TrEMBL record, chain A:
Cofactor dependence: thiamine diphosphate
InterPro entries documented for this protein: THDP-binding (IPR029061), Transketo_C/PFOR_II (IPR009014), Transketolase-like_Pyr-bd (IPR005475), Transketolase_C (IPR033248)
Top-level division of the source organism's lineage: Bacteria
Family annotation (SMART domains): Transket_pyr
Listed GO MF terms: magnesium ion binding; oxidoreductase activity
Protein's name in the database: Pyruvate dehydrogenase E1 component beta subunit
Record PANTHER family: PYRUVATE DEHYDROGENASE E1 COMPONENT BETA SUBUNIT, PYRUVATE DEHYDROGENASE E1 COMPONENT SUBUNIT BETA
Pfam families found in the cross-reference section: Transket_pyr, Transketolase_C
Automatic annotation (TrEMBL), chain B:
A GO molecular-function annotation: oxidoreductase activity, acting on the aldehyde or oxo group of donors, disulfide as acceptor
Record has Oxidoreductase as a keyword: yes
Cofactor(s) needed: thiamine diphosphate
Protein name: Pyruvate dehydrogenase E1 component alpha subunit
Organism per entry: Actinacidiphila paucisporea
Membrane-spanning ranges: none
Length: 325, 394
């Protein structure tokens, strides 16, 4: 059964289904109740499931995640909303020192099925702390799983899979894609949460991206096709773990790889992918793995974000450079 | 170290406010004993045992002028946001007395740590209103020099600045200066760990800091009951310093209480918590829609406690202001609005390379490298454009 919906609506429907399917699922966060969240992702859930399951919390991120851990220890499956990427850091201590490590600390005797949803990335003209891409800071932490959908169908299915997962999952939502529409087959069984997919087949070069940058890469592929170049686009979907097999298979066909993300390039996900793919595909590579991403500078004021964010031109520039080798 | 109450600070939490048997806070009403008030919503001047104030007509007119001009500035900013000149605006409508009263209580050598809504406090510190608008237009993240007016940059992350204020106050004390520090925050922020830690540090180090909480009843969509079971000012007692609740829509009471609190801090008696009980008449920001979560009647009820209207009633009853005075303020308001409007519209976008500026005080080879690469990348378009225009013969 296929429906057309925006990413935001897909997430909303996904949460609704999770609440219906499992009485242990709880939603927690700032303004997630009556308001339905500042992006309306929890719209209507408070009304239909009550404040016992859709919980407006005090304005305290460490408190939200810390108590979600306690609820998980008690057998619940909390789905936490952090209002904006830049507001997660009061909770970073709880996430890193407790959430990520408790399962190991208990020698596997306890599980922490907590999902932390974080709207992330720029492109919405916001003030400071509302446009950041901190995913590498979480992917670097053993014990956490990190995923990011790029389209409505993945938003719908990956969120449910994250909620069903017995490990903590940091679920990064590309906020500037919230209003992008697409087809969602709500009856199709999804594949693995952590598998990458080839979003666009091509033969000359592979672009690897996730979340908000997948759309940019698909547009780059379309633009390059007009010039007779065939770009393959891999939507990573998961950043921890990363499905290197799918990237490897693609690079073995194309011989070239450009990794694209909004987050700063320095110590970003692209560095890990470049290193692994160089190890795996050394004799297939026709060019060094190139990276396109943010600069080593604070996310700029809104009037500069268009220049700051990697767009079509910067992706195609990297493609040119990789093909020039 | 003394955290004992003083006449100026008022007694600690004991006896202030009421709690129901379950410990829930009784809904405070204006005029109840736990609320310091010197000017009623009807514009009646009343006395308070702990807080006295004696202002000249000129000073009273000054407070009125501050509030009216601040409100006009705020209204202009909302309009500019609607017109697309600003990306966002956080309105202070309804909180003018809390901000002007507390701001006017500060001395030039005191230091202010604001949230992102302290436009009225900024006004009292002589911060150019245009400076406040840059971050909301998206041309900078604040950018003014905090030391010019002892007014820190706006802080967006909720509650962070209370710790900065506490540390600054610890430094003031170490230096033997007699200045005080004032940290602004809201009812929502009172839940943040940083605020609890700021209270702890300030108490333990007897820091000369006033924690000024504008309880405007709403943290976006969440009412204060979602943050606290007791009136916020009562939290101070648990940390060992005095707390007091003041009618935040009464500029005289806010001025009197904040003066006393700052003097308490300056005189070596340590921190104090002031809860200004007020109301956010507008939306949280221009992106918010309060009709989704609160009743119109509540807003109307608070409209009848308007801070400006009650002072005007008082000024008129006492014959402290005449038509010329009001006409003069109207003209000043119009001039301010015009200056703000034109200033914002003419505010230039930063150059692209500003991205790489001020990342480090001592510079960084990494930033230099990325800047050079990006400059070359951008120049490649100019070269291409030059090449193509040459080719087409234009």
């Amino acid at each position: 059964m296929t429906q057309t919906m925006a990413v935001a609506k897909a997430l909303n429907e996904s949460l609704r289904k999770a609440l219906e399917n499992d009485p242990k699922v709880l939603i927690m966060g700032e303004d997630v109740g009556k308001l339905g969240g500042v992006f309306r992702i929890t719209d209507g859930l408070h009304k239909d499931f009550g404040e016992g399951r859709v919980i407006d919390t005090p304005l305290a991120e460490s408190g939200i995640v810390g108590t979600a851990i306690g609820l998980a220890l008690r057998g619940y499956r909390p789905v936490v909303e952090i209002q904006f990427d830049g507001f997660v850091f009061p909770a970073y201590d709880q996430i890193v020192t407790q959430l990520a490590k408790m399962h190991a600390r208990a020698l596997g005797k306890i599980k922490l099925p907590v999902v932390i949803r974080i709207p992330y990335g720029g492109g919405i003209g916001a003030v400071e702390h509302h446009s950041e891409s901190p995913e590498a800071l979480f992917a670097h932490i053993p014990g956490l799983k990190v995923v990011s959908p790029s389209n409505p169908s993945d938003a719908y299915w990956m969120l449910q899979q994250a909620i069903e997962c017995d490990d903590p999952v940091i679920f990064f939502e590309p906020k500037r894609r919230y209003w992008d529409k697409g087809e969602v087959d709500v009856s199709a069984l999804p594949g693995d949460l952590h598998r990458a997919v080839v979003a666009q087949q091509g033969t000359d070069i592979t672009l690897a991206a996730y979340g908000p940058m997948v759309k940019v890469c698909l547009e780059a592929a379309a633009a390059a096709a007009n010039e007779g170049r065939s770009l393959e686009v891999v939507d990573l979907r998961s950043l921890s773990p990363i499905d290197f097999d799918t990237i490897q298979a693609s690079v073995e066909r194309t011989g070239r790889l450009v990794v694209v993300h909004e987050a700063p390039v320095f110590y970003g996900a692209g560095a890990e992918i470049a290193a692994r793919i160089t190890e795996r595909c050394f004799y297939h590579l026709e060019a060094p793995v190139l990276r396109v991403g943010g600069f080593h500078a604070p996310y700029p004021p809104a009037r500069l974000e268009e220049e700051y964010l990697p767009g079509l031109d910067r992706v195609l520039d990297a493609v040119d450079r990789a093909l020039a080798f | 170290m003394s955290v004992k109450s003083t006449a100026a600070g008022g007694p600690p939490a004991k006896g202030r406010g009421r709690t129901s048997p379950r410990g829930h806070a009784a809904k405070p009403r204006t005029g109840e004993p736990g609320l310091v008030q010197l000017l009623t919503p009807e514009g009646e001047r009343v006395e308070h045992a702990d807080y006295a104030i004696d202002l000249t007509p000129e000073e009273l007119r000054g407070l009125y002028r501050d509030m009216v001009l601040t409100r006009r500035f705020d209204a202009e900013a909302i309009t500019l946001q609607r017109q697309g000149e600003l990306g966002l605006w956080a309105s202070l409508l309804g909180q003018e007395a809390a901000q002007i009263g507390s701001g006017r209580a500060t001395r030039p050598d005191d230091y202010v740590f604001p949230t992102y809504r302290e436009h009225g406090v900024a006004w009292t510190r002589d911060v150019d209103p245009l400076n406040l608008l840059g971050m909301f237009r998206g041309v900078n993240h604040g950018g003014w020099d905090p030391n010019e007016n002892n007014f820190q940059l706006y802080t967006i992350v909720i509650g962070s600045q209370t710790l900065h204020a506490t540390g600054y106050a610890m430094g003031v004390a170490k230096d033997g200066a007699d200045a005080a520090v004032i940290a602004y925050f809201g009812d929502g922020a009172s839940s943040q760990g940083d605020v609890a830690e700021a209270f702890t540090f300030a108490a333990v180090y007897n820091a000369p800091v006033v924690f000024f909480c504008q309880n405007n009843q709403w943290a976006i969509s969440e009412p204060t009951e979602k943050q606290s079971r007791v009136p916020i000012y009562q939290r101070a007692a648990g940390y060992g310093f005095p707390g007091v609740r003041v009618d935040g829509n009464d500029v005289l009471a806010v001025l009197a209480v904040t003066r006393a609190a700052l003097e308490h801090a300056r005189s070596g008696q340590g921190p104090m918590l002031v809860e200004a009980f007020t109301y956010r008449m507008g939306a949280h920001t221009t992106t918010d829609d309060p009709t989704r979560y609160r009743r119109d009647e509540e807003r109307e009820e608070w409209a009848s406690k308007d801070p400006i209207a009650r002072l005007k009633t008082y000024l008129e009853r006492e014959g402290f202001a005449d038509e010329d005075f009001y006409a003069g303020i109207d003209a000043e308001s119009d001039a301010l609005a015009k200056r703000v409007r034109e200033g914002v519209r003419n505010m230039p976008n930063p150059g692209t390379m500003a991205i790489f500026e001020n990342v480090y005080a001592d510079g960084s080879a990494l930033v230099d490298e990325e800047r050079a690469q990006f400059a070359a990348y951008q120049a490649s378009f100019e070269d291409a454009a030059a090449g193509s225009s040459a080719g087409t013969g234009h």
